[in-house]
Amino acid sequence: MDVIANPFSPGAGAPPPELVGRSEILERADILMARVRRQRAEQSLMLTGLRGVGKTVLLNEIGRKARAAGYHTISLEAHTGKNLAALLVPPVRELLYDLNRLAGLNHQVKRGLAVLQSFVGALRVKISDIEFSMDIEPFVGAADSGDMEADLPRLFQAVAEAALEKGTLIILLIDEVQYLSKLEFSALIMAMHRIQQQQLPLALIGAGLPILPALAGQSKSYAERLFAYPSVGPLSQADASKALQDPAQAAGALFTEDALEEIFRITEGYPYFVQELGYISWNQAHGPSIALPDIQTATPMAIDRLDANFFRVRFDRLAPSEKTFLRAIAELGAGPYRFRDVATGMGVESSTLGPVRAKMIKEGMIYSPAHGLLNFTVPLFDGFLRRIIPDQAILDED
Asked: In sequence order, which residues have a C-beta less than 8 Å from that of residue 234 and are 6 or more positions away?
């Protein structure tokens, strides 16, 4: 088969050739944007799901649709290396100048820039280790207290009021929300609460791990009413087949039914894995039919690629004690897992594992789907751990 014509695209956030099984979430985003545009209250969205289910792809598609509708977007990816203020300031500045180009520097846009300057000065925001400032006087008394929970709502209000005066809508897209600090998440919730109360044209669509609802609830009790939390999970067998068959047919090939069934069995419908196995199977098949033997040939290659490029990058950054803990979880098979069973398997008291458990949750390696339970944030990670460390005793001795 022609590898150049291969329609499949495994990669971090890479759009698949066929976005299937996500119509309900996309429709909810459309409704959110349309209602907020008309200044009607609607819950912002926090997409939750494991790694590799396509949350980033959905955020990108929502952003594309928003821009096609004439709205303005701000896209961020939270991470531990930079605070929320530093991530926000450059795109907010760019947005305000974009609004200025719509019809000249009017009152609310000018005020928004002045409030942004106050925000920058009060929090001493640094961009690329260089003090960031603008050639505009700060708005004294607005977003200049140095308290993120007080200043971020004022900044959002000023930006949204500028959008209102220009007759447009702002969509704030934040990926990996779970990496925001507790203070930043609290400030973000408070900012969106103010926006919703005043029915201003700014909507938030975030994405992150399944711990997001719990983090939001711990931060502010009203967060459960402020946000909806659509779950992004694996594809159904029908949707996984469509994600493979439609692009293949468009490129002049065809998966046999038993090939599609085998791919679903191996990948369990997780979109990243479906794309990976589809990609390798295409390259290995002689075509134009991609049959079961092609999948069987491609599977070890796909697993090797996933181990090297998807799983190992997370595993290699762990300390030995953390690897031991996660390998002990994997020893129990497929999750979710009872925490006390993990401790029993390791021959220790549950209390002694508390610190490593908390760190692994903070690092986004595991999460707690319910009280006393654990699960991996990466699908099929238990199988990887058993492959990479086939004998738990060896790890215990290291």
From this structure: 53, 240, 268, 269, 270, 271, 379
pTM above 0.85, yes or no: yes
Domain ranges of the chain: 23-228, 237-314, 318-397
Neighbours of 151 (CB within 10 A): 22
Question: In this structure, are residues 176 and 87 in contact, taking their beta carbons and an 8 Å threshold?
Answer: no
Give per-residue pLDDT as tens, 139-170.
666 767 878 899 999 999 999 999 998 889 99
CB 312 within 8 A of CB 306: no
398 CB contacts (<8 Å, ≥6 apart)?
Answer: 320
Per-residue H/E/C for 16-47: CCCCCCCHHHHHHHHHHHHHHHCCCCCCEEEE
Element (H, E) at 189: helix 182-197
Integer Cα distance of 41 and 196 in angstroms: 6
Task: For domain 318-397, give the fold.
Answer: Arc Repressor Mutant, subunit A (1.10.10)
Query: Mind listing the pLDDT tens digit for each residue in 25-38?
Result: 999 999 999 999 99
